[in-house]
Amino acid sequence: MTLDFSRNLDYFWALLPEIVLSVWAMVVLVAGVSGRHRPGQRTDSEGDPDFGQGATLGWLALAGILVAGFFNGWLYGVTEVGHTSMIAVDHFRLFANWIFLLAGALAILISFSYVYRQRLQVGEFYGLILLAITGMMFMAAARDLIVIFLGLEVMSISVYALTAFNRRDRKSGEAGLKYFLLGAFSTGFLLYGIALVYGATGSTNVVAIGASVANGTARTGLLTVGIALLTIGFAFKVSAVPFHMWTPDVYEGAPAPVTAFMSAAVKAAAFVAFLRVFLVGFDAATTYDIWYPIMWWLAAITMVVANLIALVQSNVKRMLAYSSIAHAGYLLVALTAANATAAAGMLFYLLVYTLMNIGAFAVVIAVSHQSEERLQIEDYAGFGWSNPLLGVLLTIFLLSLAGFPGTGGFMGKIYLLQGAADSGLWVLSVILVLSTMVSYWYYLRVAWFMWMREPVSEGQHDLVTAPLPMRLALVASVALILYMGIFPSSALGFAQASVHGLGSLGGGLLGLRP
Amino acid sequence: MSGAYLPLLLLFAVSVVTAVGMLVLTQIFNPRRPTPQKEMPYESGMIPLGDTRARFSVKFYMVAISFIVFDLETIFLIPWAVQARALGWGPFLAMTMFVVVLAVGLLYEWKKGGLEWD
Description:
The structure holds 2 protein chains of 2 kinds.
Chain A: E1 2-3, H1 10-14, H2 16-34, H3 54-74, E2 79-80, H4 91-117, H5 122-141, H6 145-163, H7 170-201, H8 206-214, H9 220-238, H10 246-253, H11 256-281, H12 285-310, H13 316-337, H14 340-367, H15 383-386, H16 388-402, H17 408-422, H18 426-452, H19 468-486, H20 489-499
Parallel strand pairs in A: 1-2
Helix pairs in contact in A: 2-3, 2-5, 3-4, 3-5, 4-5, 4-11, 4-14, 4-19, 4-20, 5-6, 5-11, 6-7, 6-11, 7-9, 7-10, 8-11, 9-11, 9-12, 10-11, 10-13, 11-13, 11-14, 12-13, 12-18, 13-14, 13-17, 13-18, 14-16, 14-17, 14-19, 14-20, 16-18, 17-19
Chain B: H1 6-29, H2 36-39, H3 59-82, H4 84-87, H5 89-112
Helix pairs in contact in B: 3-5
């Protein structure tokens, strides 16, 4: 099937996954308030296998993700006429969509018991997750800065609400407010950047911007300021270091499944949009010279500072927050390298990172008894011996986050380094390797507490439970991580094919254009 | 830059004259029997001075949010409605979807009890 966007109706076909998901979100939302059980009433015992009414809605939301995934697969058989329309139908977008759908599915699977125990309102919870995924998919599909902005807002507003979702918990409310204020602030930067780039190039379409930049009609002064502001806006969203201050507080305060979801998927969405704007719109040699040093320093500072601060964290959620900032730094290296290898490496890394980060958070949720307690590192003392299976899983996730050979995280780092080497970023590569070394300390410290320390008290881990949906998510993530660590070529080949022809117009500096 | 903007200028002039006129004329013709209540600055009928952390019912927020939603719906619908025949079926479809989404929101609010005052 060929889509010609001069016929407006063809946008419906191009946006089928997004449409399905947003309609499904509304269905889940309405189903949540029209059920027989009023949400928030706990009528059954602790060990209810159905998690109150939550399970029905959770599975309903998962079914929505499956249907959206089906249409996402269907879009592989669809081609577009020209590559300039507002909505891209390319494999890059579809690969990114798989990441978002996977992150959403895993986040829903690990949240069943948590939502039930914390008496969260299920319909709104799952509905907002679906809406957030819709926004992310718009960001990945956007070939127009305005569409990116709209997708970003749909995603961000859903995630602000999810962050503040546990209204009985003061920290959750505080995190939500902080995230909302700083997020709104950063959106202002992004929007101002869009306005200036529009002023400089006369278009908000990324391809048209690229053409205008390449043939030298863009005004350099305005464009420089515009690129700087866009970088700031995106750097807030991916939490690169000078703009990371909100991250630890928000990740610590938000309900744990939401933290898992946003540390993986929101970051992936921001990076995917970041990549498309900068590697398709600003890839001419003149603009690359403008943003290359900014990106270089952002990547370097992010890797160094985040890893050093993570060393001294005693709260595991907070440690994982700093770890996610550090991972943003690794991904920024790929963006600085700006070649096809690095772009494919970034997609691969985002996929692996989603799996290992949500997996690690799943175990954290289990250890904290499906609530927000027992998050200190001492609470992990002796955990490995009392729950060997969960202990081994968390160890694998942590090793993968650190980048231990045999796990997906290792292969991801290798491909990022390969991309950096292709562009001759030797200093940045060395910083990446050294900061990875540093990160081993704080990841392995948790493992050390789990296996090498005696439990603080008798029966400390007796109440740790991992219900069936969470076990499903854990098994799926660990299997995929090990598979990608040992046989990386299939996933990498997929990522490379997805990046191929990302911007298929004209000649460019970055090797992404044929 | 000549005649096209004249109505706008007239509108501006009329609104300025009306606003200033109301202030001036009431000062001249107004009978004054001041009481402490009347001397207070007027702010939507609330007592304007006091602790900023005063608590008031969350119901007011619900009404305010509903109001904004339907206010915006009107803002989007009226310009379309004026030109509906000329625009044809495409925009009709778009507006239908817009209204359907809002209707789902209203259904949600209704089920959730957002429309009940007690």
